[in-house]
Q: What sequence folds into this?
């Protein structure tokens, strides 16, 4: 490289490092106006936490409103036993029950709280001791200045949902390729490149139980595979009396917790559809098919009466039902699987 070229390269590197330093400017004293040492990066807006199955759940609201059945969500724990290698915590979210509540809410299913009743129990205790003020005037008739406790004021549940995350399998399969090359001389250009891909999965088992009889009326077991990739490339060369070494890489892993939410929403959709015996054509447009993908020989028939508040028939899972084996029914035609983005949007 000529002296002019080296000078140009040096100037470019100096300007680049200066731009990076200014962009991440940090002061040792907090600003008197903002109270911060530096301005945080990022400006992503808050968006809805959606999966490819969210629209189908909202579609089911047409049937859930027709005959409300109150559902409670119990413990949906992480039974995988997977802990981070650095002992920083669990690999899988501990909020699966909260995801199930959100999924039921998207389907407009009436919910009753049974997961965390600590506040209600404390309020009941205070009210029982006449410590909570009532709605009446403080100087009104006797007994009107504290909250009353009435029998039968808390609605019960018709069904409750429980289960757990039962599988987390890392690196089901992986593959990689790499290559490097250079000239035969010692100062010739050298380059490397490589790519790796690996697959893992999460599994979920849910059951819907009749609150009055404790009969299990539906069981669903689903799993979803998760893909990750790594790509890197580099170049090394001598520039006269100096050398140049540059590399570029990219890695991505499909969000594990979003995969858990997707599996839960898919399972909740099926349970709600079966519980209300939705017609064959119910929400079919959300799956890009002409028929309900969950239709079975005994379920989703148009004129079949909905489940009453008693379990006269126990619904057993049919593992060989073709509708349960079709993996891509949750993706519409406008959102192809090949271009699926982070939140179910086309990239």
A:
């Amino acid at each position: 490289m000529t002296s002019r070229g080296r000078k140009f390269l040096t100037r470019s590197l100096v300007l680049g490092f200066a731009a990076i330093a200014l962009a991440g400017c940090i002061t040792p004293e907090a600003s008197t106006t903002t109270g911060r040492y530096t301005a945080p990066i990022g400006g992503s807006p808050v968006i809805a936490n959606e999966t490819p199955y969210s629209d189908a759940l909202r579609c089911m609201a047409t049937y859930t409103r027709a005959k409300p059945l109150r559902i409670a969500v119990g413990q949906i724990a992480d039974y995988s036993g997977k802990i981070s290698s650095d002992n920083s915590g669990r690999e899988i979210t501990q909020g699966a029950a909260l995801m199930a509540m959100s999924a039921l809410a998207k389907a407009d299913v009436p919910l009753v709280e049974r997961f965390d009743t600590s506040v209600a129990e404390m309020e009941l205790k205070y009210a029982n001791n006449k410590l909570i003020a009532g709605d009446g005037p403080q100087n009104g008739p006797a007994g009107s200045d504290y909250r009353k406790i009435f029998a039968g004021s808390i609605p019960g549940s018709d069904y409750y949902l429980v289960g757990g995350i039962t599988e987390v399998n890392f690196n089901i399969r992986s593959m990689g390729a790499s290559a490097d090359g250079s000239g035969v001389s010692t100062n010739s250009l050298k380059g490397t490149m490589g790519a790796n891909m690996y697959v893992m999965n999460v599994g979920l088992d849910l059951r819907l139980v009749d609150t009055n009889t404790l009969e299990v009326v539906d069981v669903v077991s689903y799993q979803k595979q998760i893909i990750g990739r790594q790509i890197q490339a580099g170049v090394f060369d001598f520039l006269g009396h100096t050398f140049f070494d540059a590399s570029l890489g990219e890695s991505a892993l499909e969000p594990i917790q979003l995969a858990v939410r997707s599996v839960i929403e898919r399972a909740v959709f099926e349970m709600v559809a079966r519980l209300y015996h939705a017609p064959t054509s119910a929400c079919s447009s959300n799956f890009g098919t002409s028929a309900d993908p969950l239709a079975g020989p005994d379920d989703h028939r148009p004129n079949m009466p909905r489940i009453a508040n008693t379990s006269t028939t126990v619904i057993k899972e049919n593992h060989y039902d073709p509708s349960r084996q079709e993996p891509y029914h949750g993706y519409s035609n406008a959102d192809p699987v090949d271009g699926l983005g982070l939140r179910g949007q086309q990239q």
In short: The radius of gyration is 29 Å. The chain has a mean pLDDT of 79.
